[in-house]
Amino acid sequence: MSLKISNQVSIPLAEIQFQAIRAQGAGGQNVNKVSSAVHLRFDVVASSLPETYKESLTKINDQRITSDGIIIIKAQRFRSQEKNRGDALDRLSELIRAASVTRQRRKPTKPTRSSQRKRVDSKTKRGQLKSGRGRVDSANL
To answer: pTM value?
Structure first.
């Protein structure tokens, strides 16, 4: 069994550690007895992920990733442990997919001559409009 990230990349579930903990917040009488929340731990450096994925994950500035390269996800949205496990796995795969996306480099462009001319013309026009708002001198009328 494995967690599918993309068509070529998947993580064996043996590399992911789960720890059941008690959930925080309101929950009635059950909250003190049942450990329904889940801590997911995934060691990026020791995993079987491709090197490109590992590099991009370690470069991300995310509070869920420790300086040692371990991803820790706490899932406590649902009342059952199984749903929280699934939620944590979904969030892990989403994080890894987001890290694998490479952004296209921006090509710097120069404005055209006509757009530069339009910009300057509109600025002079606006300046003339504003200068016309000044005080009217009655002696010159």
So the answer is: 0.68
